[in-house]
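so my prof wants the structure for this chain in the tokens format not the other one, which i didnt know existed until like an hour ago. anyway here's the sequence
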Amino acid sequence: MTKISEADEETRKSLGYTGAQNYSGNISPALKWLRSRLGKAEPTTFYNHMPATDIRALISQEIWDGYFKFCIERNPWDKTVSYYYWKNRSEPRPSMIDWLNKGGHKTLQDRGRQLYTIDDNIVVDQVIKYENLTDDLETVRLKIGLPEPLELPNAKSGVRKDKRRYQEIFSDEERQIIAKDFAYEIRTFGYAF
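here's what i got, hopefully its the right format
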């Protein structure tokens, strides 16, 4: 389990959950070379929201092939609204259209599918939809043989005060920006506005 923010680590601890563990790794020469060519710092540990390419470079072929790998994807419009409020926690917030036009959502676009793809090919065994989280995690639990159902704390539920559905938030123009920028996810997982 990777380290997360200090606040989330405190939530983990207060709920009696195990803290970060087993996240150190030795970086492979191939990843060192690639990251140096891209001008990026070398990861020496696993970290939260780590791209599949970096994970693959830090582990053996035996582990990569032998472990059941899964991740979670979320409806792009819903994910964007959540990210907008996470990045703009205090007033005054930029308008949604200004934030989108300035690329506020680009981190989601750039990093999102890198979690489960390499060269836009899905490399995990299962992509769970956030919208079906409880049922899909139960499927994973049974598949890997965990003895008890998984319980997930809602650690970030207090950030977004605007509880409107994303369909009520986006204008047609904003909706189209997301549709264009997240076309891969929409096409691959059948998301619709």
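also thought this was worth mentioning. The chain has a mean pLDDT of 85.
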